[in-house]
Amino acid sequence: MSPTPLLRAVVRQFGIAAHCVELEQYNDRSPSPGNIAVHMRLAAINPSDLITISGAYPTRTQLPFIPGFEGVGSVASAAGNQRVLPLGTAGAWQQIKYSDPAWCFPVPDWLSDEQAATSYVNPMTAWMMLTEAVHLPAGAKLAINAANSAIGLMLLKMAKRLQLDVVAIVRSQQAAQSLDAASVMIMASAEDRHAAQALKAAGGVDAVLDCIGGNSALTLATALKPGGKFISYGLLSGQAIPNAFWLQRPDIDFCYFHLRQWIHQASQPQIAARLDEVFALIRDGVATTRIAAIFPLAEITEALHFYQQQRHTGKILIQC
Length: 320
Hints:
Blueprint: E1 6-11, H1 17-20, E2 21-26, E3 36-45, H2 47-54, E4 71-77, E5 80-86, E6 96-99, E7 104-106, H3 113-117, H4 121-134, E8 141-145, H5 150-161, E9 165-170, H6 173-176, E10 183-186, H7 193-201, E11 205-210, H8 214-221, E12 224-232, H9 244-248, E13 253-256, H10 259-265, H11 268-283, E14 291-296, H12 300-308, E15 315-319
InterPro entries: ADH-like_N (IPR013154), ER (IPR020843), GroES-like_sf (IPR011032), NAD(P)-bd_dom_sf (IPR036291)
EC number: 1.6.5.5
GO molecular function: quinone reductase (NADPH) activity
């Protein structure tokens, strides 16, 4: 009897994910030398997946490819099946991912599949920015924009754990109502300089975590103390930070933060140690992720349409 074909999502041309991602069947095979078979259980849909599918990084993305930077799977071992996070490459949107065992990090038994599948992209990005990119002393003032986003809410809880004085920046009073922060600032538009000036008048901030970019970054720079830190980790506005940002504030300690770069520069023991810290934060309720919906892999197109509706308030997972 021939084996049952497996299922995977494949991208053969760049564009809008719901239009470009195709399903195809494939047969199980023996892993190439040095790799192991990871039987994927759950995988997440993240903005970084859709950005890659759009063709934003053509020089490092070879077509065709299997998307998915985040997910949890299991590998066969002498002691049974060990759950792991297969990091380092894309390819989580399939039933079996062949991975380098050095990049497969064990998951604690107490962690649910749902939280394991979402324990990497947002929690690690948030924790590494706070503890390495910014690394402020207790009592320092930190501004976080898009604070009501999934990663923004996580950053607020982590910053509180680190005893930082946090200013949460959102675009409406409705968004501000659910926030737990030292103070909340409403910046209704990218050019809302009144809010930033008020923040500056109150003493300014020691650091900014910005995931919007564009003119919003320029506005926030006015609230930063001399020599303060500005970390850019996203461009939700779709616009680059304007050149005027550096012309007006050449004193700023600026850097981009990309988890992918940190992961590939760190050693495996360093990554494992940081993951253990993140797992502990999830256990304590600091870095938990709300799950909005779970779709079977066979319904990946429906999952992507649901994701792009932007009406959900949590992560979308794919059951592999």
